[in-house]
TrEMBL record:
<dbReference type="GO" id="GO:0005829">
    <property type="term" value="C:cytosol"/>
</dbReference>
<dbReference type="GO" id="GO:0016787">
    <property type="term" value="F:hydrolase activity"/>
</dbReference>
<dbReference type="InterPro" id="IPR000629">
    <property type="entry name" value="RNA-helicase_DEAD-box_CS"/>
</dbReference>
<feature type="domain" description="Helicase ATP-binding">
    <location>
        <begin position="32"/>
        <end position="206"/>
    </location>
</feature>
<comment type="similarity">
    <text>Belongs to the DEAD box helicase family.</text>
</comment>
<keyword id="KW-0963">Cytoplasm</keyword>
<dbReference type="Pfam" id="PF00271">
    <property type="entry name" value="Helicase_C"/>
</dbReference>
<dbReference type="InterPro" id="IPR014001">
    <property type="entry name" value="Helicase_ATP-bd"/>
</dbReference>
<feature type="domain" description="Helicase C-terminal">
    <location>
        <begin position="217"/>
        <end position="382"/>
    </location>
</feature>
<dbReference type="GO" id="GO:0042255">
    <property type="term" value="P:ribosome assembly"/>
</dbReference>
<dbReference type="InterPro" id="IPR027417">
    <property type="entry name" value="P-loop_NTPase"/>
</dbReference>
<feature type="compositionally biased region" description="Basic residues">
    <location>
        <begin position="391"/>
        <end position="401"/>
    </location>
</feature>
<feature type="region of interest" description="Disordered">
    <location>
        <begin position="378"/>
        <end position="409"/>
    </location>
</feature>
<dbReference type="InterPro" id="IPR044742">
    <property type="entry name" value="DEAD/DEAH_RhlB"/>
</dbReference>
<protein>
    <recommendedName>
        <fullName>DEAD-box ATP-dependent RNA helicase RhpA</fullName>
        <ecNumber>3.6.4.13</ecNumber>
    </recommendedName>
</protein>
<dbReference type="InterPro" id="IPR001650">
    <property type="entry name" value="Helicase_C-like"/>
</dbReference>
<dbReference type="InterPro" id="IPR014014">
    <property type="entry name" value="RNA_helicase_DEAD_Q_motif"/>
</dbReference>
Length: 409
């Protein structure tokens, strides 16, 4: 398929040429016509699938024929969980909309509110926001929602995980009843379905790549190791495997900071991104990593969500995540677009439950590799043998009840 057949204007098509996109990704093929037709949508798609353009392109197209927004108003509201993701969506809007005259801005917490209030003063056609800051701006009369025609909830599952449900509900209550709703989520949990029920009007459901499967181009391994030897093992791997760059995931902010300290004591150049870092610090760390100035980027799941780093060769799970779906998100950061990637996990005995949960989700046992000098004293228990879908026994058919005299089927 080509972009021309999706009904997008020349202004948008030219911007896509500038970006070097040849054809729409599967999620874009599915979402763009449905959104342009005015439907609500419930889309299951992870970061890396091209989902952002999947909603930004049709929004740009639809708003191009509408009158501009009035002061302190917006026509399209995009809610997203993290500052990084908000900033990236806004960058995409600027890139795809560069030949249009639409105004857009992005607002998130952790930075001064005044410049954001100034930007909203004359109105913007598209507003990207994290929920908390958006409510602050509403309370200060910097934004009114009366003219919102399109609402996007991006990474809805993550917004719920981060406890934004109350903020989201407060925002929803302030929006006009008649509007188009677009919900994007990496998973369709019961909570998401519940949220969707109260929000979406006869949504079209779209989904790309089977849920919760890991990219086949990602080679996955795990190293059993004692907890207190993990940092040493990581240094060893960085050197012996000659990792030029790696994204390392830690479960906690404290753990991420500690790891950066330990790596720097070992002369390995690293930086951390997590929720306690200021926006400026996070942006700088990400930029330096992209430029190759930082060798190891240590991130928590929430901070890493949505960061766009192309073709990362190596992802490391320094700790296993508590939520098994996060494992899939984490390793989805490597092996993109057909390139090979590697994901390794350093697993200590106390993480066996998380490992069981992950293996049950990805439906195979991750290859275990023992490294001399790091064989754990506290042995990692065996994985549960994975029962493949094919070998699972079919449930028996219930027996038919015998007929009573005089009865017929
Ligand atoms: P997303 O899933 O929206 O975070 O997008 C992942 C990456 O894919 C981003 O770097 C986009 O710039 C890129 N991308 C999005 N759509 C396309 C496309 N149709 N062709 C090539 N790259 C794309």
């Amino acid at each position: 398929m080509i972009f021309e057949s999706l009904g997008l204007s020349p202004a948008i098509l030219n911007a896509l040429v500038d970006k070097g996109y040849n054809s729409p990704s599967p999620i874009q093929e599915q979402t763009i016509p449905v959104i342009l037709a005015g439907n609500d949508i419930m889309a299951c798609a992870q970061t890396g699938t091209g989902k952002t353009a999947g909603f930004v392109l049709p929004i740009l197209q639809m708003l191009s024929t509408r009158p501009f927004a009035n002061s302190n108003r917006t026509l399209a509201l995009i809610l997203t969980p993290t500052r990084e993701l908000a900033a990236q969506i806004h960058e995409s809007i600027l890139a795809y909309g560069k030949y249009q005259r639409l105004r857009s801005t992005v607002v998130f917490g952790g930075v001064k509110i005044n410049p954001q209030m100034m930007k909203l003063r004359s109105g913007v056609e598209i507003l990207v926001a994290t929920p908390g800051r958006l409510l602050d701006l509403y309370q200060q009369n910097a934004i009114r929602f009366n003219d919102v025609e399109i609402l996007v909830l991006d990474e809805a599952d993550r917004m719920l995980d981060m406890g934004f449900i109350h903020d989201i509900k407060r925002i929803l209550a302030l929006l006009p009843k008649k509007r188009q709703n677009l919900l994007f989520s990496a998973t369709f949990s019961n909570d998401i379905r519940q949220l969707a029920k109260g929000l979406l009007n006869q949504p079209v459901e779209v989904s790309v790549s089977p849920q919760n499967t890991t990219a086949t181009t990602v080679k996955q391994k795990l190293y059993p190791v004692d907890k207190n030897s993990k940092a040493l093992l990581l240094s060893h791997l960085i050197r012996s495997e000659k990792w030029f760059q790696a994204l390392v995931f830690c479960r906690t902010k404290h753990g991420a900071n500690k790891l950066v300290k330990l790596l720097s004591q070992d002369n390995i150049n690293s930086a951390a991104i997590h929720g306690n870092k200021s926006q400026a610090q996070r942006t700088k760390a990400l930029e330096n990593f992209k430029l190759g100035k930082v060798q190891i980027l240590v991130a928590t799941d929430i901070a890493a969500r949505g960061i766009d780093i192309d073709q990362l060769p190596q992802v490391v799970n320094f700790d296993l995540p508590n939520v098994p779906e996060d494992y899939v998100h984490r390793i989805g950061r490597t092996g993109r677009a057909g390139s090979n990637g590697h994901a390794v996990s350093l697993v200590s005995a106390d993480e066996i439950k998380q490992l069981h949960d992950i293996e049950r989700l990805v439906k195979f046992n991750i290859e275990r590799v023992n490294i001399e000098g790091f064989i754990p004293q506290n042995k990692l228990p065996e994985s549960k043998p994975f029962q493949s879908q094919q070998t699972k026994r079919r449930p028996k058919k219930p027996k038919r009840k015998p007929l009573l005299e005089g009865q017929s089927r």
